[in-house]
Amino acid sequence: MNEIKNKKPHKHSPKTPAPARPHVEPRKPGFEVRATAAKLLAAAVDRKISLDGMLDLTHGNAAYKVLNDADRALTRAILTTSLRHLPRLEAAIASLIETPLPDGARALHHVLIVAAAQILHLDVPSHAVVDLAVEQANRDPRNRRFAKLVNAVLRRLVREKDEVLAATASVSPVPGWFRTRLVKAYGEVEAARIAEAQLTPAAIDLTVKDNPQAWAEKLGGKLLPTGSIRLGAFEGSVTGLEGFDQGEWWVQDVAASIPAKLFGDLKGKRVADLCAAPGGKTAQLIAAGAQVTAVEQSNNRLVRLKENLARLEMTAELVSGDLFHYAPEEKFDGVLLDAPCSSTGTTRRHPDVLWTKSMQDIQKLATLQEKMLRHALTLVKTGGVVVFSNCSLDPLEGEDLVKQVLADTPSVKRVPIDPANWPGLENAITPQGDFRTTPAMVPPSDGFSGGMDGFFASVLRVE
Ligand SMILES: C[S@@+](CC[C@H](N)C(=O)[O-])C[C@H]1O[C@@H](n2cnc3c(N)ncnc32)[C@H](O)[C@@H]1O
């Protein structure tokens, strides 16, 4: 059938031939994935928008949500790889361009970074990556004049991949502000190890209700000295694994499982979990025999906490609201304060954190945490214990804050953690007796990857 005949006649001047429409080439397969990855990279790096929000399937980015499962997985892989390796990818591109890109050419920068991440680190055919990047440049009026440059630079990157990787290996893979903080806190050598460790995506660790040895065998995982189970690489979702529907275990990084264990014997004790959702630590406290009150400010997150406890067939008293307004009639034997923090210890899982957060965020969060800790200390009985924890690597949110509280609150004493009780993690206990884990801890073994989240935890007794 002739397409023209089906068209409506021109409304205003039927005799004037309709202007010729520009011929638009259909987009190549894979174009949407790359365009979405570049757009979300721009949002994270330039507008400080967190990836979790943008990749949420209900409230997230529209272009991402309409992709099919496989395309979403590839978009995520490209994005997280781009963010993890960003300074090295930038150095790689810079080494192949004679004149630096204009400062305002951010859209072009993101197209090149997304392509370089795939060429250097992902198992994607390089010729397709180059073609799609050239198409991205051509379709964007801001970048069209750079299409030839994109083609030339990326083709060279494909040809010189090994040399470029070797030449950029000495570039720190974290942003300058964060490297400065790491060096100040851990020294040059350890800072470099931590920065390097965050390049490896996190393994999945599970916490089980009981019998970790048997579950490790059933799931083909490795039993870590703390009782967590580390899974090997696998295809698919954890929700399909044995024991998920029966509520026998939950996903929790080995480092995140430490704070709740610091209370010791909890049988018959009343414990408040003040920043509870999504509830990994609440579940541990319940499994350890405590009677738990879980306080959470965010309604959405409280819903997740409820769902998680329901699957695990566990119950707790749930309090919806701000912990600063929580004034229970009776004080608790123990309080867990797993405070909101900069999350700089979770960059293996959330590599956007280093690009969306800043030193100002760390300072603000440290101030909030100190206020929260002082409030938490008022909620325990005399002789009761507060465990303060968070997943930041910055001493401002950990060591420094606790030091300040101890210095001006004589009724509060630190209970030093005994390294003898933590085989394999002795080096994670500071001379003061706090826990300080980093992604560079837990070496790989038996074919399982290493690493753990960066966490801080301190045990404080009110006398
Ligand atoms: C680091 S997360 C807690 C993770 C949780 N402990 C776990 O292990 O699953 C911090 C939580 O504190 C909550 N929160 C932040 N400010 C709060 C406040 N003022 N009162 C109560 N909860 C708060 C956040 O909504 C968030 O769910």
Which ions and ligands are bound to the chains? S-adenosylmethionine
Would you count the extended β strands for me?
A: 12
Mean pLDDT: 94
Distance between the termini: 89 Å
Query: What structural category do the secondary elements indicate?
Result: alpha/beta
Number of domains: 2
What ranges have pLDDT less than 50 throughout 5 or more consecutive residues?
Answer: 1-14
Report on this model:
The protein is of the alpha/beta class and about 475 residues long. The protein has 2 domains: about 30-170, N-utilizing Substance Protein B Homolog, Chain A (Orthogonal Bundle), CATH 1.10.940.10; about 250-460, Rossmann fold (3-Layer(aba) Sandwich). Helices cover about 40% and strands about 10% of the residues. The chain has helices at about 5, 30-45, 50-55, 60-65, 70-85, 85-95, 105-120, 125-140, 145-160, 160-170, 175-195, 210-220, 260, 280-285, 300-310, 355, 360-375, 400-410; strands at about 205-210, 220-225, 230, 250, 270-275, 290-295, 315-320, 330-340, 380-390, 410-415, 435, 455-460. Strands 5, 6, 7, 8, 9, 10, 11 and 12 form an 8-stranded mixed β-sheet that branches. Strands 2-3-1-4 form a 4-stranded antiparallel β-sheet, covered by helices on one side. A hairpin with a 5-residue loop joins β2 (about 220-225) and β3 (about 230). It is elongated, with a radius of gyration of 26 Å. Bound molecules: S-adenosylmethionine. S-adenosylmethionine binds near residues 278, 279 and 280.
